[in-house]
Structure formats: structure tokens, C-alpha cells
Amino acid sequence: MKILMVCLGNICRSPLAEGILKSKVSSEYVQVDSAGTAGYHEGELPDKRSIAVAKKYGIDITDQRSRKFLVKDFENFDVIYAMDESNYDNIVALSRNKEEANKVKMILQELDSSQKLNVPDPYYGGELGFENVYQMLNEACEVIVSKINK
Ligand code: 4NP
After folding, report:
1. 7 Cβ inside 6 Å of ligand 1
2. Cα torsion at 48, 129, 135, 120 (round to 10°)?
3. Which domains does the chain have, with CATH numbers?
4. CA-based, 20 to 30 A from 127: which of 49, 67, 98, 99?
5. Which of 13, 73, 84, 141 is catalytic?
6. 84/147 Cα distance (integer angstroms)
7. Is residue 7 flagged as an active site residue?
8. Which residues are paired to 79 by β-bridges?
9. Relative to the CA of 7, which ligand 1 atom is closest?
10. pLDDT tens-digit readout, 49-77
């Protein structure tokens, strides 16, 4: 199974989502990657604050480099998790058919399918925003793992 985590810049939220999910699954069975809908940070390391909060929980995300979401990702991944509604809309707009569009989900819908909750963009905030993002992604990834294991 192949899962792609997507946010805007691929430096704050989706690198954390990638690192957290990778820490809970066997890479033999579940491959995880991340990307951004925008290419502004192409080739860059995750944001220092994402690196720090991941490290606090024992996860190293410094092997990651930002990359842009590609239309080809629809062919390579089974599920594409968007961090917020804007990411969701931008990815779905690139899909070429229903099957591709149906691969796109909002990650927090794993916690509450009745609402379209966003993982808030922590880029312009402080450290607390990153802790908050870590906690919500960790909960969502627990649900993703329990579904995979069923
Ligand atoms: P991310 O956060 O989408 O969680 O990686 C952002 C990073 C950079 C920018 C926006 C959001 N930016 O505008 O440069």
C-alpha cells in the first residue's frame, strides 16, 4: 500500500504526517511519501520547527526534502491525504477521472468523518502550532494504521 501526505509547501505539515505514519508501519508493506501543492520550497529540508517537534517524539525527518505534487502521483499512490480543504481542492482539480479523485481524502476525516476539519497551517505561528499539528496528525495516523491492520 502506498500513501501520500500533501500540504501546501511540503515543509511543515505533510513531512510530519509522513514521519509519524512511517514510524507506525512496516516499510515493507506500507510506503509513505509527502509532497506540496506548491513548489516554493522544492529541495528544502522540513521547517526547523517540524524537525524539532518530530525529534521530541523520537522521529527523525531530516532525510526528507520538499517536492511538488505531480499528476503522476495519482498513479503511484493508493491514498492521497490532504492536510486542509485548500490542498484537497487543488489536488482534486488535477485528477483526470473519478478513480483518481476518489483517492484524495482529508486526513482529519479519519478522526471525524462528519466534518471537514483542517490541519491548521502552522507556518506563520509559533512552536505551539507545531505541537498541536503533531498531536492531531499522530491521532489521525493511529486510525490509519488500525484500518490498514484490519
Ligand atoms: P506547509 O506550510 O504547507 O504545512 O508546508 C507552509 C509552508 C510554507 C508556506 C506556506 C505553508 N509558504 O507560504 O511558503
Report:
1. yes
2. -110
3. 2-149 (3.40.50.2300)
4. 67
5. 13
6. 21
7. yes
8. 3
9. 3
10. 999 999 999 999 999 999 999 999 999 99
